[in-house]
Every structure is written in structure tokens, then in C-alpha cells.
Amino acid sequence: MLFSGNASYSHLELAFRLTCGPDSYGPDCTFCVPTNDSTGHYSCNNVTGEKKCLDGYQRRECNDCVPAKTCSPERGYCEDPGDCVCYPGFSGDDCSELVCSGQICNSSSCKREHKFLSYTCGQECVNDTCECQECPCEVECGENGECVRREEGDTCECSEGYRYNGELCETIPTTATQSGTTGSEVYIFVGVSVGVVVLIAAGLILISVTVCLRQRSKKKLLINTENVA
């Protein structure tokens, strides 16, 4: 205790020591729990708490395979210590090989025209290359068409003169012209009509000529009569 005149003062010194909790490291108490499961694959730096990826893993959460062990997401997945676990129908370090290993290709992936498609017919693979027989075309086209497979789905290619109506290939109807008559009927009808018109016109011309001749004859007869008188 210090005295100064009539006043007194006290001086107190305190010291603190902060300690990080469990699984916390460094001056900032960085939290880190060593993990080796689907959430990550890493250990912890005892000084800084920084995550250190286990062999075969990389990225922030140490959950991705290293480049040399990259697995195609369509063919397999990464599993410790960085190995690729291939889906059925694939094999190799990076699951790049197509192998069925004697299994049936039902619901497995097979390569066809540089695309991976799912086959559900249960056809067996041959020659250890996953050459699966694709499912048969499922559209009934009838005897005048053929079922074909396209990316948008199965459809029918019809023979000439036929069209696909959504169920089968049917005959394309002849285009109607007037009142349900066909082109040939109209042609005949028009031909007959033209003939009738020609006959009528010829008749009218003949009548006109006859009338004209009769009038001339009457006129000559009248002139001769006047001359005689």
C-alpha cells in the first residue's frame, strides 16, 4: 500500500494463462479432429491445428483422390488410402477398363458409341469387354415399317406411301379435292364437261349458220319478185 499525503493507493498485478480446449491448437485455438472416413482423410498439426491430408488425398477436406488416383465419377469412387473402387463393369487403377467379369449386364453401364447407357435386358457380356446386346426395339410398326432406336426414343421408319400414326405405319390417304372426289375422277369429270361444251358450241354455230343462210335465201327471193313485177 502506498501513501501520498492524506491519500492511500493499492497496486495489484494479475497474470492470466489461456489454455485451448481438446482438439484445439495454436494461438487461435484452431479446432481440428483427425478424421479418416467419408467426411475427410487427414491428421492435425499439433502446433497450428492445420489439416494434413493422408496419403492419396488432397483438397481442403482431404476428400479427393490425388491426380494419379483420379477416379471417373461415372465409373468408380475414391476410397482410402486413395484407391479407386470401381462400379460393376469397370476395372483398373482409375476404373478406365470396361470389364464385366462374367457378370450379367443388367442395370450396369456399358460403352456404346462413346456414350454410357444403362441396359436392363439382362444380356450376358462377352469377351470380357462388356459388349452388351442392347434391348430390342419396343415399337410395333406393322408390316409396312421398321422400328429404329434414336436418342429421343424408339420410333418407326415407314415404307414409301405410309406414315407413322403413333401406333403403326398406315397408308397415306389420297388428297381429296372436291366433295370427296379424287383427282382422277375430277379429271374425267372435267374432260366430259369440256366435251359437252364443245358440242353445244358447235350446235350453236350450226344453228347460226343455218339461220343466216335462210335469211339470205329469203332476201334473194324477195329481190327477184320485185324485179319481175
From TrEMBL:
Q: Which SMART domains match?
A: DSL, EGF
Q: Which UniProt keywords apply?
A: Developmental protein, Disulfide bond, EGF-like domain, Membrane, Repeat, Transmembrane, Transmembrane helix
Domain EGF-like: from-to ranges: 84-95, 156-169
Q: Which GO terms describe its biological process?
A: cell communication
Write down the superkingdom of origin.
Eukaryota
List, alphabetically, the Gene3D superfamilies matched: 2.10.25.140, Laminin
A Pfam family recorded for this sequence: DSL
**What's an example GO cellular component term for this entry?**
membrane
What is the designated name of this protein? Protein jagged-1
Transmembrane feature ranges: 186-213
Q: Which organism is it from?
A: Geodia barretti (Barrett's horny sponge)
